[in-house]
Amino acid sequence: MPTSRRSAAPDTSGRGATFSISDLAREFALTTRAIRFYEDCGLVTPRRNGRARIYGERERVRIKLILRGKRLGLALAEIRELLDLYEVARNERAQISKFLALLADRRARLLQQKEDIDAVLAEIDGIERDCRRRLKEEEPGNRDGATKSAPRAAVLRRGPRLGGA
Predict the structure, then answer these.
(1) HSE of 79 in the Cβ direction (CA atoms, 13 Å)?
(2) Which of 30, 90, 78 is nearest to 55 (CA)?
(3) Which long-range contacts (CB under 8 A, 24 or more apart) does 33-38 make?
(4) Where are the domains of the chain?
(5) String of b and e for 59-74 (b: at least 16 CB within 10 Å)?
(6) CATH assignment of 1-74?
(7) Which residues pair with 55 in a beta bridge?
(8) How far is CA 71 from the centre of its chain?
(9) Does the structure show a pLDDT above 50 at 95?
(10) Are 59 and 74 in contact (CB under 8 A)?
(11) Cβ(4)–Cβ(56) under 8 Å?
(12) Tens of pLDDT, residues 47-84
């Protein structure tokens, strides 16, 4: 099976540089399966030469944008919507407006998650303090230890309180 590489010779077809699936996988530290998955989702559309996929600069940029969107926590459907906005409008205004809305939503979700994590960490801190205090009370030589050891499991029976629930 022949492998295509970046075009070393000038491309007279007007299509610019081309890349094989292996070239893009190596450049972006992806598997070829991941790139084929993006193709199956309609996020990239390589040209075909028989069975070989031929990727152009458009697909290379789209993969870069897909990975940036994933790093930001966007769903593939949201990424596709952004990419499609540019294809339809051929300007960035609609795409940028939608991207700002998606970023605001993502920021709000992350802030809520951070708040939830902070609440759980505070709960863990309280439980740890209770457990350390109980261990200290039960140290050998502590006369009060025997009288305070009965409710030791009570600290573990409290459930975590997430998000005010």
Answers:
(1) 21
(2) 30
(3) 35/63, 38/62, 38/63, 38/66
(4) 1-74, 109-165
(5) bbebbeebbebeeeeb
(6) 1.10.1660.10
(7) 19
(8) 5
(9) yes
(10) no
(11) no
(12) 999 999 999 999 999 999 999 999 999 999 999 988 88
Distance CA(62)–CA(44), nearest Å, equals 7
What the block records as the tokens of 55 is 């990727």
User: Which parts of the chain are beta strand (E)?
Assistant: 18-19, 47-49, 52-56
Label residue 42 left, alpha or beta by phi (over 0 means left) and psi (-120 to 50 means alpha).
left
* Tally of residues, the chain: 165
Q: Which residue has the higher pLDDT, 84 or 25?
A: 25
Tell me, what amino acid is at 35? I
* Tokens 């920021």 belong to residue: 107
Closest CA to 133 of 152, 115, 117: 152
Dist. CA 53–CA 67, nearest whole Å: 20
Tokens found for residue 44: 């990239």
Beta bridge partners of 59: none
